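Please go through the sequence and C-alpha cells given here and tell me how the chain folds. Record follows.
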Amino acid sequence: MQMMENLFSLIFVVALLAGTALELWLLGRQMTHVRRHRDRVPAAFASRFSLAEHQKAADYTRDRATIGLLEVVAGAVILLGWTLGGGVEWLVASVGALPGSPLWHGVVAIVALLLINAVLDLPLSLWRTFRVEARYGFNRTSVSRFALDLGLQVLLTLVLGGPLVAAILGLMEAAGQRWWLYAWILWLGFSLLVTWAYPLWIAPLFNRFTPLDRPDLRQRIEHLLSRSGFRSNGIFVMDGSRRSSHGNAYFTGLARHKRIVFFDTLLEALSAEEIEAVLAHELGHYKRRHVLKRLVTVSAISLGGFALLGWLSTETWFYQGLGVSTPSPATALILFALAAPVFTLFASPIGAALMRRQEFEADDFAVQQTGAGHLVNALVRLYRDNSSTLTPDPLYSAFHDSHPPAAVRIARISSNMCPT
C-alpha cells in the first residue's frame, strides 16, 4: 500500500510539473509570437486596423499573458500547499475541532477552502481589473462595485453551493456504493435549475436588464427569429458598460425562459445589420444543436468524473498520496476537485478544437441568414474594440482558444466555403 501511495504522489507531482511547464511554455510562445508580429498589421486587416490599434492589441495580449504566467506559478504552489504540503489535512482537522456533526464539518471545510482560494486569487484579480484593464481603457468598475460583486458571489456560493455540497456529502455517507450515481443526478438537476433560473433571479443581482427599445432593430431581430423558427422570452439590453467597455451578446436560460441579451456597449459599437449578424451567429449555436450537444457532453464527462470519484473515495492511497491521512467524504471531494484539473489539462486541445468547429458552423448559419459582409464587419469591429490579437500563437490557440484565430475565421467566412 505504501508503494501505491508513493507512486500516486510521484504521478501527481510529475503531472503537475509537466502541466505547469507546458502552460508557461505556451504563454511564452504566445508573448513571443505576438511581439514578433507587433510592428506590422496582417495583410488581411491592413485596411481595417491602424498600426496603433494593432500594437495596442499586442501589448494588451502581452500584459494579460504576464498575469497568466503569475497565475500558473501561483496556482501550482498553492495546489502543492493544499495537497502534499498538508493544507487540506490541516483545514479538515481545524474544522473538525468545531462543534457539530461530521456532515456539517465537511460543508464548512469545503466552503472555507473556496473562500481561502478566493482570497489568494484576489491580488491578481485586482491587478487585472484596475491595472491592465484600466490601462487599456476597458475597466469602468469602481472599487466599491468590485467589492459588492465579490460579496454577492460569496453569498451565492453559500446559498446555492452550501446545500448542494451538504446533499452530496449526505449521499456519500448514506446512499451505499452507488452514491456517485445519485450525486450525479442531483448535480445535473441542480445545474439545469440554475441555468433556468439564471436570467430570472441571478443575473439581475449583478446587472440591470431592460427590454430593447429600438423599434427598427427589434423588428429586424424578430424577423430573423421568425424565419429561423426560434422563440425567446424577450430581447434585453444589459448595462455591461457599468463594469467594462468590452461588448458581447448571448442567449441565456432554458425552455420558455430563453432570453436574448445584448451588452449596451455592443449596441453602441455596431450597426443594425452587424448586430443582426452577431445575433445570427449566436442563433446558429441553437439551430445546430450545439447547446444540446454541449449539455450531453458535459453530462457524460461529469458522469465519468463522479464514477471515478466513487472509486477513488474507497482507496486509501488516493488520500495519502495527496497528503491526507484520514479519509472522509469531504476530503475525497476536495482532493478530487484539486487534482482532476492537473490531469485534464492535457486534453484541452480536444475540447477547444470541438468548440472552434462549432464556431465555424455558427458562422455558416449566420452567413446564410445575413450574408458574409455584415458578419465580417461586425467581427473586425469587435476585434478592434476589444483589442483582440490578430496574431495569436497557433499552438497556444490550440490549447486555449474556443474561437478560431481572427485571420482564419475571417478568411473562412469570406471564402467560397461559406454560402453567400
About this structure: The first strand starts at residue 209 and ends at 211. The chain has one domain: 1-175+275-289+305-420. The CA atoms of residues 19 and 343 lie 8 Å apart. The two ends are 65 Å apart (CA to CA).
